[in-house]
């Protein structure tokens, strides 16, 4: 209840923001309309007081979810490891006990043979080199007929030749038997202890599962509320940016400036009378000018640039659509393309835009510039139209619309269309053949790095689990914690979690930072190191030492700050460490924690991510046309609490909670014949479902570790 009260107070503290200033339009470009700010329903809380406050409200909920998931994942990992150790110890104990039993039988046999020989020697009067004590020892197990050897002379010869050797063999067998018995006892004790440890950890997992289910159930309603508030926030942010833009246009009007054509502003050394170069860090900015009026310097953008920004604002709020070019939906390139028409027509791929337009230094970015995001290993994956204040207008898949958003960390270059073709060739980075899709501000739903290919960044027993990913707080510049902390002693070895290429950095916040590029848009970061044991450009392997724990940079004590980044965006590291693969999400939500308002119904209470739902309904219609029956479904979106419950019941079959694609609303379990390999229904699905974006994953195929004919996942969406 206390958690719920804190959330209520947090939302109650959010206040209303903005009145948008209207200004006259320029004749050479459309006037962007003012986005409407939804009124507050009667009896509900007002929209947020600021962008920062609202973001933290939603992020705090996500942080709580991430912390619960990380805690449960860690407990499950410990239990799984203990269970494997217990199974290994039990197998070793049974093997040792079997070996000891066999050895005991062999020892008894050897003593039995010696006893027969000694008794015969005694009765036959054969001299012996063995003393009375050893003779009595060997006589103990005798229970044989002493007339076994009928021929006295043969017996004498035989016993004389082998008596000492048999005695030594019997002693050796006895010693070996005692050693193996002791080994078996030790291993049985270890097996019992390992079993007890696994049982105790199993109880902890059950307890944490119950706590996780309760916590997530409590969060669901709060997430729905926060999601609605976040939507209001986006509207407010869009309006703020538009108000700022209109203020600039008002300044131009007050300065009595008519925006000149782009061609006039290309060369800062040849500007028309009355215009002066605009400088940034001592350098003149091409394609832009300035005027000074009443002691105030006003930036002068070209008419074409102002028109492009105006048109970009006119698209704000339009729904996102993969590769869509309007008028109802826009893909990431589609929005930028429409903004700059008719002045120029952008190519149909982001990678093809980069070679065609002059790049400018990031310090000189101006409104209207095309911002392309990506990396050398990832390629170019996103494009936006620049605004001031580190913002841009872009079609954002994660937000489902054209929005005003922050320029991401993976900004690759800024292009200025009004400067024409580049003076020197600009070659776009090409993604590796295995590069994962990162579309328009969103990462792929799941990212497989190969089961078992990851190791933990610190050796077992040397660390604790510290501040989790996503925790909100003013001590972090982003407003939330972008990694997972592992408190450990200074000097504790730090290891690469998997193979990649090293880059060493020394940012103020991290002190010593090792960044490893694993290709395909995947990076890991290791911060606050006391020393670095690798060099720039070095290739490292999983488990290789790269440095040592320290307290450099912005820290409150020695620890490793560990990050996983996909396409430049930080994601929760714990699922990667737990499974060697991870579901990375969409829309900023945690796995299994997607508000109902963000999902779409398909049938009988089942829900999916909306693009997956649309594709599913088309698939279901085709299935009905072929078989005359409704597509049978047993499972679709699965909440985190439901994942935990399933994992409790079927740990060998269910995915680790927080990693299932059911938790992203892009997986279904089907029935009605599809749940049997080689049935007509299954064969039809194999042949037809991919055309609708639905595929049967390789891990669920016959002969794999988990044969699940019923499980289907939504893959690449249609480009229409």
Automatic annotation (TrEMBL):
Q: Where would one find coiled-coil regions in this protein? A: none
The record's Pfam families line, in alphabetical order, gives: Peptidase_M23, VanY
- Molecular-function GO terms, alphabetical: hydrolase activity
Which CDD domains does this entry report, sorted A to Z?
A: M23_peptidase, Peptidase_M15
Return the Low complexity bias intervals: 30-43
Zinc as UniProt keyword: no
Quote the InterPro entries the UniProt record gives: Cell_wall_metabolism_enzyme, Dup_hybrid_motif, M23ase_b-sheet_dom, NLP_P60_dom, Papain-like_cys_pep_sf, VanY-like_core_dom, Zn_M74/Hedgehog-like
Instruction: Extract the ranges annotated as region (Disordered).
Output: 30-52, 93-112
Can you give the residue ranges of the NlpC/P60 domain?
Answer: 302-431
* UniProt KW keywords: Hydrolase, Protease, Signal, Thiol protease
Q: Which SUPFAM superfamilies match?
A: Cysteine proteinases, Duplicated hybrid motif, Hedgehog/DD-peptidase
- Signal sequence, renumbered to the chain: 1-27
Q: Which family does it belong to?
A: Belongs to the peptidase C40 family.
- Kindly provide the name given to this protein in its UniProt entry: Murein DD-endopeptidase MepM/ murein hydrolase activator NlpD
